[in-house]
Design brief:
heterodimer; A: alpha/beta; abc type-2 transporter like fold; four-stranded mixed β-sheet; 15 helices; 9% strand; elongated; B: alpha/beta
């Protein structure tokens, strides 16, 4: 019995080594994987923000009073950037059409007078909402700015008139953002990017390694060798898991920590264990794909079809509560969805298994099912 | 350039494509499927944010205030929380995204004309959503303050109408251009065309050339009279054609299924998509001209196309918010230029007269890509 076991280990060792050798010898693949775990994450994290910044504002100020100027200057950097005046409405429309300005604010001639007397004063704001994210941010900020300005002016006027006897009831907002104070996209985007790369490579690399053997015909050699199907398959997954874990190490300790100052609050051992499990089980998708297809072009298409919905709908960009109900449930079937909770939990929140166990359990069950399916297909085809 | 030889290369490539049934199917099925999944799931409207309320005051007024949030369609009320120690657990689990804490003496302080502070604890894991939620809460508080002051004014002897006039006399009329509904799908669906066309066509092109290298069938080309240019062009045209057909399919999906408004000219859309198809497949062509294995080609194409298309096209992350470095990348990536064109033709109804810089950039891009591929591809490889 121990002899058989030793033999399996020996087979696995040799085959894993073979995969790693093959990987190392493909210079371009090596370069692109290194790039994916370092420069790519740096680039994504250093410039990308999901926040309204320097939105171009063009103004038509028909009032030219200190009040209208006050209002204009309350549209401040970094959200807004005053681009200039444009009294000609046609030319302003042109600027909006060609995207040269995003907002166009019109202040009527009687603005200051109306504010002083308490008569209704109406200002108009045109917003380019063709990008809905930007549009909704810009409109909500603009509404807040104008409302705040209105309240402030009214208070000044009322206190001058002495109507309130000096005291005003008021509800102020105070906000505390947890886990990611200041809503730092610098943390969110690079972590997201790392998860994207992990997922993409953990499906792609084993599938490609397997299909390559099919395409070149070397799989026939492996099948007539004393290796069992599992001994052919598992080393590919082991080897690629090692490669990816190495890449993750580069990202976490070379990019996320030193460059983006993302804290590692949780347990390192737990992080690596769960990442390894994730990579290993996601590779099951790759194995399942490799049994259906015959060449790498097909692999590429299948991976894209599987990967892109997983990436975009796993809660990185859109949380479950904003999904249509059916997709919301489907999302629970994506291992990535659980893995995101785990990674964010360990890195940013510093929590452990006691909090993360539902996600870990979900990932375990799904990963097990996926890997089991992949193995089953594989054995059926090559057994 | 010999047209007969070019036609022969195209015919050979086309035969290969049509004989691989799975591949052919996937080439036309994957793009629409992706478009449907994204279109249904990429909901960027921030609504139904799950939240709980901690009420330390337990008075009629604090409850009335709480109902301002409970009734809002932006928030999804998950109940009152009595034990504040539960907060870290709830936020860590992602079960709620915000916790509103109403302070002790809320009613008493407001009645006395003092300012009170309502604290909101938020999960910052989704920065965009946290920002927008903060805006909503700020707006709710501002309106509540206005009402409170108006109420005080009426007790101070003003008529109700006078009080309202005094408080809310500055009105902002907001006009959302191009996307009046403010629905994210209207602006997302057209941009999905940009993203999906960036995902599959380059991959197909890249693999088709490298496959010949890996299988050795390229030796036939090396030994034949076909020139470099004819061979590359013969590889390029069929895939650009596939991409073009997909462009029309996706356009139909966006317009008829997702009901996105299309205000521009269809002819101009076709022209721009034609050029874009050559640009995207050109990326595949370039990658395949120097890479030696299909795995490397697939991974490299995915990394260089997918990431800019998602991150740097301005679809999710606004261009104006990017740092200088990221803006350079955005301008260098073709996705951003096509996104501009898409925005223009769909939402704004503008044509070549305003969008010619973007069209020209795409054209230039295609020419440069082909030239580079021509330079790197050699019929006499050193090995």
């Amino acid at each position: 019995m121990s002899g058989r076991f030793g033999e399996i280990l020996q087979h696995m060792r040799v085959m894993t080594l073979k995969e790693l050798l093959q990987f190392r010898r493909d210079v371009f693949l090596l370069i692109i994987v290194v790039y994916a775990f370092s420069a790519d994450i740096y680039v994504a994290g250093s410039g990308i923000e999901m926040e309204l910044k320097h939105a171009a504002l063009t103004v038509a100020d028909y009032d030219q009073s200190s009040a209208s100027r006050d209002l204009i200057y309350s549209f401040r950097e970094p959200q807004f950037k005053l681009q200039g005046m444009e009294m000609n409405a046609d030319r302003a429309m042109d600027m909006l059409d060609s995207g040269k300005t995003m907002l166009y604010l019109e202040i009527p001639a009687n603005f200051n007078k109306a504010l002083l007397s308490g008569d209704p004063a109406q200002i108009q704001l045109l917003v380019d909402t063709s990008n809905s994210v930007l549009g909704s941010l810009a409109t909500s900020y603009a509404a807040q700015i104008v409302a705040g300005y209105g309240v402030q002016r009214a208070m000044e006027r009322l206190s001058v008139a002495g109507a309130m006897g000096g005291s005003m009831p008021m509800v102020n907002s105070a906000h505390r953002v947890w886990f990611n104070p200041n809503g730092l996209d610098r943390w969110f985007v690079p972590i997201n990017e790392m998860l994207t790369m992990i997922t993409m490579l953990s499906i792609m690399l084993p599938a490609a390694a397997m299909v390559r053997e099919k395409e070149r015909g070397t799989v026939e050699q492996l099948l007539v060798s004393p290796l069992t199907p599992l001994e052919i398959m598992l080393p590919k997954v082991f080897a690629m898991t090692m490669v990816i874990l190495l890449g993750v190490t580069v990202t976490v300790y070379g990019v996320l920590g030193p460059i983006f100052h993302i804290p590692f609050r949780g347990n390192v051992f737990l992080f690596y264990t769960l990442t390894a499990i994730y990579v290993f089980s996601t590779a099951g998708f790759g194995l399942a794909i490799s049994t259906v297809v015959n060449n790498l072009a097909q692999v590429g298409l299948m991976v894209i079809m599987l990967l892109s919905p997983m990436l975009m709908l796993s809660g990185t960009f859109v949380p479950p509560e904003a999904m249509p109900t059916v997709l919301g449930y489907l999302m629970l079937l994506s291992p990535l969805h659980h893995f995101i909770e785990i990674v964010m939990g360990i890195l940013l929140k510093g929590v452990g298994l006691d909090v993360l166990w539902p996600s870990v359990l979900g990932m375990f069950l799904l990963g097990g099912a996926v890997f089991g399916f992949g193995t089953w297909r594989f054995r059926r085809q090559f057994g | 350039m010999n047209l007969t030889r070019l036609a022969a290369v195209i015919a050979k490539e086309w035969a290969e494509i049509t004989r691989d049934r799975l591949f052919l199917g996937l080439a036309f099925v994957v793009p629409p499927v992706l478009m449907l999944v994204f279109g249904l799931g990429m909901n960027l409207d921030v609504e139904n944010i799950p939240f709980v309320i901690v009420d330390h005051d337990h008075t009629p007024q604090s409850r009335e205030y709480a109902y301002r949030m409970i009734d809002s369609r932006y928030f999804d009320f998950k109940g009152y929380l009595n034990d504040e120690h539960q907060i870290p657990r709830l936020l860590s689990r992602g079960a709620v995204r915000a916790i509103v804490v109403i302070p002790d003496k809320f009613e008493e302080d407001l009645a006395a004309g003092h300012a009170v502070t309502v604290q909101t604890l938020m999960d910052g894991s989704f920065p965009l959503r946290a920002n927008i939620a903060r805006g909503y809460i700020g707006a709710i508080n501002a309106y509540y303050t206005q009402e409170l002051i108006a109420k005080r004014l009426t007790t101070a002897g003003f008529s109700q109408k006078q009080a309202r006039q005094q408080m809310g006399n500055l009105r902002l009329e907001m006009r959302m251009l191009y996307n009046q509904s403010g629905k994210s799908i209207w602006s997302m669906a057209p941009k999905m065309v940009m993203m999906v066309l960036m995902m599959t066509p380059p991959l197909l092109t890249a693999v088709s050339l490298v496959r010949e290298k890996e299988r050795g069938s390229i030796l036939n080309i090396y030994a034949s009279t076909v020139t470099r240019g004819e061979f590359l062009l013969g590889k390029w045209l069929p895939y650009a054609g596939i991409s073009m057909v997909n462009g029309v399919l996706l356009w139909a999906l966006a317009v008829f299924y997702f009901q996105a408004p299309f205000k521009g000219s269809f002819g101009f859309y076709l022209l721009a998509t034609f050029i874009y198809s050559f640009t995207t497949t050109g990326i595949g062509l370039l990658v395949s001209s120097f890479v030696k294995t299909q795995i490397a080609a697939v991974v490299m194409t995915m990394v260089v196309t997918l990431v800019p298309a998602i991150l740097f096209s301005g679809m999710l992350f606004p261009l104006s918010s990017m740092g200088p470095q990221a803006q350079v990348i955005a301008y260098l990536a073709p996705a951003m230029h096509y996104a501009r064109i898409i925005d223009g033709t769909f939402m704004k109804g503008v044509g070549l007269d305003k969008l010619w810089p973007s069209v020209l950039s795409l054209l230039l891009y295609a020419v440069v890509l082909f030239s580079l591929a021509y330079y790197f591809f050699t019929k006499r490889p050193q090995e």
